[in-house]
Amino acid sequence: MELKGIHHVSALTANAQDNFKFYTEILGMRLIKKTVNQDDTSVYHLFYGDEVGHPGTELTFFEIPRIAPNREGVSSISGISLRVSNDKALMYWKDRLERFNVEHEEIQDRGGRLTLAFKDFEGQRFYLVSDENNQGVAAGFPWPKSPVPAENGVTGLGPVKLTVRYPEATIKVLTDVLGFREKGSYASDEAGQPDILVFEIGKGGSGAEVHIEERKDLPAERQGKGGVHHVAFRVDNEEELREWIEKITKLGFPNSGFVDRFYFKSLYFREPNGILFELATDGPGFATDEAEEHLGESLALPPFFEPQREQIEARLKPLNTKR
């Protein structure tokens, strides 16, 4: 029952078409699934990833039209990392972000790795992180048809940063419940604030880290566009997931129980600072209902929603994802 690393991160957008344009044309990621929010089928759920959306490479977005901007604060997933192969790739990305007028900072060391912080068109907070000296969970494989050259392409998700007011409670869940181990720390970007604490799971490395930021000077986050909904961690298979459900329930955490997302199976629960965690299986994967060469080009619906396709499509604003 050892978690394998980060499975996916799900964020919020107010505009699916602009979101698709930014993440495919500027970041060069592949849209691997265009589907709907299974809890609200009137809105899109978009999945981006590597060539086939391997676990650990998936960045997803729920579209909520007209949602207010995210108000940054505690009890939040305050930073998402995207892995690239080496330090040289960060120089490519600095030039590319400038060419597309994307807000970014300078390249700097965070936790022993070079990183490049930037924000998307809705203020979503990212770090491009170099795998130059990284060891641990393997990266994915950039999509060959990406506008970004393969040697510079995004290869998956890196560390996820959590910002909390009381880190001890979150750390206890990470270590005592989920099995993370403390790895080290590094200086905060904010003067006078405590160091960022680093925890890892499984084989470790960039694809298996959670970074904890303590901030007692911030209000609670109000989620909106540019915010993050939840982070999911990798479970090997359904049998192990059911063991996790039993463990989380026995420990007294209110939780979702077993949830069939068709592309993976899940469990959801909140840690004490209010951040939503998901445990998700590595399979079956995203090529179960579409050919690999055509992933993301049309609206995919799990079998349990297929009888409602006509009604679902009628409520959705058209979103052209043909390539």
From TrEMBL:
UniProt xrefs under PROSITE patterns: VOC
GO molecular function, one term: dioxygenase activity
Keywords, in A-Z order: Dioxygenase, Oxidoreductase
Coiled coil (residue ranges): none
Domain spans labelled VOC: 5-131, 156-282
InterPro entries reported for this sequence: Extradiol_RC_dioxygenase, Glyas_Bleomycin-R_OHBP_Dase, Glyas_Fos-R_dOase_dom, VOC_core
Domain of life: Bacteria
PANTHER family (alphabetical): RING-CLEAVING DIOXYGENASE MHQA-RELATED, RING-CLEAVING DIOXYGENASE MHQE-RELATED
Name of the featured protein: Ring-cleaving dioxygenase
The species this protein was found in: Terrilactibacillus laevilacticus
